[in-house]
Give the backbone structure.
Amino acid sequence: MLRRHRPLLLAVVFTAAALLLWQYVIAPSAEAIPSPSEIATVLEEDWDTLWADTRATGEVALLGLLVGSGIAIGLALVSLAARSLESAILRLGLALYSVPIIVVAPLLVLWLGQGQKPRVAISALAVFFIVLVNTIRGFRATTRESHELLHVFSVSRLGVLRYLRVPSALPYLMSALKVAVPASVFGAVIAEWIGANRGLGVVMFFSLYQFDVPKLWAAMVLTTGIALAGYAVVALAERVVMPWHESVQTSRLETA
Amino acid sequence: MPSPDPGGSIEVADVTKAFELPTGRLEALAGVSFSVPAEEFVTIIGPSGCGKSTLLRILADIYHPTSGAVAIGGQSPREARRRRELGVVFQDPTLFPWRDVLGNVLLPLKIAGRLNAETRKEARDLLELVGLSGFEKARPDQLSGGMKQRAAIARSLVLGPKVLLLDEPFGALDEITRQRMNLELLRIWGESRTTAVLITHSLSEAVFLSDRILVMSARPGRIVEEIAVDLPRPRTPEMVREQRFFDTLNVVGKVLYDSVGADAMVAAEL
């Protein structure tokens, strides 16, 4: 019992120790670092508005993740159908990813107008390349023998995708999503920073200029919360979608 | 006894295969000819890189010969493949980790559109035949090397092929497991009544399993000798200690030695 829950127990103890250290040692000696209790007070007092902001940011991040991953997976499929296009697609992806978001964001606002659309686009942009590279790699992570075997079974091209490529790509896609979730939140916050009337990015922007440090930190805590929640959902999905994979099986040796 | 309509016979006539590589043209096979009557067990043996696996892949319609003709049951390998008359087992078991053992065996049925209650039952029977009953729900990575290869053999038989193509199926197994798998293979082959073509490095494996042994030269590969194995069936483990087993073993060894040369033998670890 104790042995099984030891990692969780350690995490709780470690977090508690860090919070205590922060509350009683770090915060009193630094001006720009509020204590955990101050942040908690802000969260409690402004909960209604902060929760609305969190939902706005979460929604943009989620839509950005879906749009960015969707386009990336679509392009990975295209690169699979026409192998000659693969390097062109990857180059395009890299070029898009290399442009600083802070520069593209105002342009996207000009093109897509006010509202949620440009923010979703920016979040999608932050996600797109991560998913693209990994999905293409996952589609290619198949052995020659697997293809020869399916060929002897006289499988169709769609069958190769269904029985071999997609399951091979799943671990890569799930790993990509784990990185993409925080990236989508980051993209959403940056986008809100540049122009929005709701969202944690907006809260950060104003609290920074009003030097409301505890509120700034509260927004940071909530941003982290969105990313962690997203990550947890992906990790859970991983167990459902690919229970066979070794990344899900890590604790087997210990428990066996 | 061969049935009146063989179906599983193999005719290979003057087959050559060359690969165009960035480093130049590689002649893998130079004029290979042989025939295998239905339900015979034939082993192809030869030094590393002699084109044995290439030959097997031509029979499986994975590669196309550069010249020459191949007929399986009187039809092209492509037709035989499309009629699902070919079963293959590679040295790597090539089980899909995202499917359990039964799921892997059912995959050819699913692809062929033949998955139903009856074929599902046949697949379970096959798992029993290869000694894997009780492991239907196991994941491939939970199995030992020998067990994985048993699953691969069950999968190769699930569509009821007429020809079984085995590319060093036990090459990665330890000697003891390998000997046990040889016995199992004979038993399974005896029940499935298919033509079997086995590629191997092992002289004793070739003699123990086969009706006939085709010895290949070093690259570009040719068949240099056909040796009939005069051991009764069913084969038993005791036979490997009989004089006629050793006699056949010596003949095969000598043919290989003469055709390949001592240096190449050492290089090929034969």
Q: What stands out?
A: Strands of chain B lie at 10-21, 24-36, 41-45, 67-72, 86-89, 163-167, 195-200, 212-216, 223-228. The CA atoms of residues 109 and 115 of chain B lie 5 Å apart. Chain B has a mean pLDDT of 91.
